Amino acid sequence: MSGQDAATATTVNTTMTALTTTPEPEGPQVPRGIGASVEATDTRAKTEGTFPYAADLWAEGLLWAAVLRSPHAHARIVSIDTTAAAEMPGVRAVVTHADVPGATTHGRRIADRPVFAHDVVRHHGEPIAAVAADHPDTARLAAAAIAVEYELLDPVTDPEQSFGAAALHPDGNLIRHIPLRYGDPEATGEVVVEGLYRIGRQDPAPIGAEAGLAVPRPDGGVDLYTASTDPHTDRDLAAACFGLEPDRVRVVVTGVPGATADREDAAFQLPLGLLALRTGCPVKLAATREESFLGHTHRHPTLLRYRHHADAEGRLVKVEAQILMDAGAYADASAESLAAAVAFACGPYVVPHAFVEGWVVRTNNPPSGHVRGEGAMQVCAAYEGQMDKLAAALGIDGAELRMRNVLATGDLLPTGQTVTCPAPVAELLRSVRDFELPALPKDAPEDEWLLPGGPEGAGEPGAVRRGVGYGVGMVHMLGAEGTDEVSTATVKVVNGAATVICAAVDTGQGFATLARQIVQEVLGVDDVAVAPVDTDQPPAGPAAHGRHTWVSGGAVERAAKMVRTQLLQPMAHKLGMSTELLQIQDGRITSYDGAFSMSVSEAMAGKELWATAQCRPHPTEPLDADGQGDAFVGLAFCAIRAVVDVDIELGSVRVVELAVAQDVGRILNPRQLAARIEAGVTQGVGAALTENLRTVAGLVRHPDLTGYALPTALDAPTVRIVKLVEERDVVAPFGAKAASAVPVVTTPAAIASAVRAATGRPVNRLPIRPSAAVGAPNS
Fold this sequence. Notes:
With 779 residues, the chain is an alpha+beta fold.
């Protein structure tokens, strides 16, 4: 075996060993199947420190990569001189745009992003060149030695100015415009309230290092080991860039330390593959924290103008809105994010008349893309702010006003789509409204009172005001507007041990655990492993919008049922009955009359059974010229009551408690579901209070975890999961709904509502600035 072949074999072996499911401990008390709190498949590996993140991978003859990034937000590149870098001892290759053999631009939806900038730099941190060297320090020094001459250009950083600015990209500045028209434009209400809202730039801020390894293959192809969330799309993008056929590029998914957008940027993987192909050696890249902030996409900063009309009883008559989203330099998922924002601009409320204008434009700000609840989170903060204004104007309790307007199954969205899925919004809101409030400090004097600002807060108790507020949010599940959602899975059983083969990436949402539960439920087997994911398997699509629970879980269920039929048919034939009269339960196969019984292990002994199946939900359609259309497969809803303490002298905010009621369809794994909801709520707390990637003239300020304030364990509030409504969606496998995005969407709106209640101030910006909660209420 050559050195190159050995490197490949070593890498594959490391990944396969670590990603294969660890067997569960034996014993009759271990939970099994759907509805049980089955332990996550990777729990043991993560707690023991053996989980194979990409930063841990190694190969014989490894080289290290570094990327030169633009220090400017907007500039013309006059020249690039790599001579000094190439001549440094230990440097094996330097690549620029001139060395890209295939497509020089890429993008998941629109191929508008250069692999390396070559004529114009459009955002701070854009890649310009990459280096491979025998030591990481050498690679970084060589990258710094590349001489680039820039002609600085004025950056366009205000999305409102983008409309009239010179084109920042050959495709123009406007990425998409959606006008939504629904009902009578002349309709008016007795009470009208207006608001202007701004949502900041939230970063995914992955705790694990972004890293990857590229290993050249003997056939002239390359294997990419990355924390990809959509490996087949990444493979196709890479193959186009490398000038290779897709079957000569393989993407192997390493351990993904959570993903909310940052793992979906192919720009990180492309330089690796180019350097591996150029040098003929394995090449590894581990991004610094600064590179991570500059390189991946963020939540779209958004400006929203609203006008709500209501009658004297508080029932909504008309909603008018203008939504402007900042895409940054490139399109990425911006068109889809705008569609969600426009479609959900009125929230989970019945609105007879709606007129919404939505735009997403290019600027020279950092790129925006997919982050949990994209589009929906921004409009939720705005329409809930409007509901608070309406409640104040009418003198109605905020929860009661919302109750008078909530959406239900059978109602119409402003897009004209009928809500056919369960929509228990009233039940959710009622549950959090009626839940017991946390005690005030004077009611529990023996407990230490945490002042806003923490245990050592500088505030005085006399300046603290408590507020209670509400947020009601919604998200769509699966892709939208005609996206072909399909996933393929294979279930194979040999001597009673089952293996699931599906390219659905477990990004922390627990798909691998769910796949085991499905097979255990359908086949009655205990020993179930989930194979590592790579692009040699059929596609399963991206890990977003809860799609793997629905589409990939559905494919696993269908494949398992096909294996079940293969197992039971011979028995049913001998017994003279149909397979439907045999059931598998508690590890045994029994007939309907109890006359026949056999253990599953005995029935499967010596047998090899397998089946492959697909799951494809019903089709959707793009929004038309008036923003109308059945664009979404399904919807999920959430209601949250927030209780906050606000120091009105310092402007500091402490979230005391968040009571959550969520529409989940069906609980598949109670422990895992609770963890997903709590994690989503915590991410929402960050968006509400601390997380804002600040820029000055397009340049990112403090791209580190000191300047970017993530919520810590000390910031995480008490989360009370008050109610989980199980109304199964009949078109979804198992009837389950997406769990983690909708609490992210709803939490910031609820916290802002509570701060309004505590201070009497409008609070129209996220994250909430201290100045918004200081002093006397605005008149």
